[in-house]
Amino acid sequence: MRIAVTGSIATDHLMTFPGRFADQLVADQLHTVSLSFLVDNLDIRRGGVGPNICFGMGQLGGNPILVGAAGYDFDEYRAWLDRHGVDTGSVRISEVLHTARFVCTTDKDHNQIGSFYTGAMSEARQIELKAVADRVGGLDLVLIGADDPEAMLRHTEECKARGIAFAADFSQQIARMDGDEIRTLLDGATYLFSNEYEKGLIESKTGWSDEEILGRVGHRVTTLGSRGVRIESKDGVTIEVGCAEEDAKVDPTGVGDAFRAGFLTGLSWGVSLERAAQVGCMLATLVIETLGTQEYTLRRANFMERFTKAYGDEAAAEVQAHLA
Questions:
Q1: pTM beyond cutoff 0.90
Q2: How many helices (H) and strands (E) are present in the chain, helices listed first?
Q3: Taking the CB of residue 40, how many other CB atoms lie within 10 A of it?
Q4: Neighbouring-strand partners of residue 16
Q5: 265-289 pLDDT per residue, tens
Q6: Could you give the 3-state DSSP secondary structure of residue 4?
Q7: Interval 80-85 mean pLDDT
Q8: Is-catalytic flag, 257?
Q9: Which residue is catalytic, options 107, 147, 169, 257?
Q10: Nearest in space to 1 (alpha carbons), one of 217, 171, 146, 190
Q11: Alpha-carbon dihedral sign for residues 257, 260, 266, 267
Q12: Kindly report the CA angle at 171 between 132 and 289, in degrees rounded to 5?
């Protein structure tokens, strides 16, 4: 099963300021703020929903196809992804723009000042999925993740026109989209991904009820935080899967991407929706135990031991056959 993942490609530059931002602000001079913070450290992390999901799929032995736009500074990041089983042959490289970048400083009270540079991500709208499909011999499923909004709309419309199954996953971009755009992006999707808050926002912005949305998609996949995930189908079947027990809660960033990676990989194996969700929840547990979205290591023996403990011998036997 050939799965393409479209979405943002970015790097995060995270810094820590040992003081408090509030102590540096002068109330009657806020209209002329000019500040520079001497920070203690700089942590550069690979990110973007597209690479995060593809990295997880690669860790599980898949060969996902990353589709997105990056800058001329992408070589090192590309090499990392290539080493971890990701097909980067369909990444568009801008000739003039840097890869999208999030620069953020956090103070001792966990207040943050950040900036997001879109950069090359704006060129994702120029990518044609037909060229991707021709290169790899066809596509069975395209996940349309948070990206340049025009790119998300173009990819959705192209999937519909060419009869390619697609999964709608707006995540961070839902806040800036209007009801018409969201209706276009989800109508006809085989899978609709969201968390609980986004689920309510989708219904509010589209004006469609939960039942109406279920009538327009194949499956609605809602992540529930520490309670796992719920999968609803238009035929009335609901599946709920809990989370595997974590050793520690280190950093929740990227947990949703990891779930999607495991779920999509399970689909590519041909296992049931319940099994695919269990794989997704187990992979998400590895990420929450790690600082960074692509810094975890999947050790297969350990993965299967924990998976068996969480979901039982029968489930483990089905997954082991593919993971091995």
A1: yes
A2: 11, 13
A3: 9
A4: 41, 106
A5: 999 999 999 999 999 999 999 999 9
A6: strand
A7: 97
A8: yes
A9: 257
A10: 190
A11: negative
A12: 100
